[in-house]
Amino acid sequence: MKKIPKSSRLSDQAFEILKESILTGELRAGDPLPEEKYSKQLGISRTPFRDTLMRLASEGLIIQRTGAPAVVADFTKEMSLEYMELRNLLEVYNIEKTVMKIDSGMIRNLKENLELQKQAIENNRYAEFMRLDKEFHLSLVSVNTNTEIRNLLQKINDDLSRSFLILSKTVPESAEEAHKEHIEILKAIELQDIVLAKNKMLIHLSNVEKRFLNYYNENEN
Q1: Which residues form a coiled coil (predicted)?
Q2: How does DSSP classify residue 74?
Q3: Could you tell me which CATH class the domain 10-72 is placed in?
């Protein structure tokens, strides 16, 4: 785990480091976070570390317990599906509101992102693909002037990052299919066709949920 640069605000940097560790699966559900161990590992005192824990708890990433170390929160299949439902509603609505605001510069950035997605798939770097997948979706949200929608989708995508880690264990077609769906979304955006863009986003998110459920169903049987 990284140490915090002295020039940075301690609790902010500790929060980002621990959050990344949770989202990438370095810290797993149920792992304890004893103050002495992690404050020393991060190179900060206990006071900013406690502030960090409070922020992580407020985002639902950890569970704080009286008289015992905080632990990384579990993220169940049911929770994942609830977040996916929220994501589907908000992202389809978001693309309706933002298609006409996406300029040539953002189109270029999205195409670069898709090319990096392709390279990640070709090199079997599925954790990297999932990071780029999240970046693609949040780029579409970034032009929305509604701050609350941006914040909600940021949180939902963060929470789902842990769920989507399981997709790195599935067949490569999962990532390849998602990449093709992203291309279709971007084509609709380039045409500035709001109805088509909404439909392509809806199809993509529905397929993500199906792939997610297929993984669970195969492992439950």
Answers
A1: none
A2: P
A3: mainly alpha
- Whose tokens are 């939902």? That residue is 156
Q: Nearest-CA neighbor of 209 among 94, 85, 74?
A: 85
Domain ranges across the chain: 10-72, 77-220
**Does the model's pTM come out above 0.85?**
no
Residue 10: C-alpha distances to residues 14, 16, 22 (Å): 6, 10, 18
Residue 127 to residue 111: CA distance in whole angstroms: 19
3-state SS assignment for residue 64: strand
Q: Which residues contact 106 (CB under 8 A, 6 or more apart)?
A: 139, 143
- Taking only Cα atoms into account, the Rg of the chain, rounded to an integer number of angstroms, comes to 19
d(CA 139, CA 144) in angstroms, rounded, equals 10
Task: Give the model confidence (pLDDT) of 11-46 as tens digits.
Answer: 788 888 898 788 777 888 899 999 999 999 998 888
In this structure, what token pair is assigned to residue 130? Answer: 């999932």
Give the bridge partners for 45, in sequence order: none
156 Cβ neighbours under 8 A, 6+ residues apart? 83, 86, 87, 90
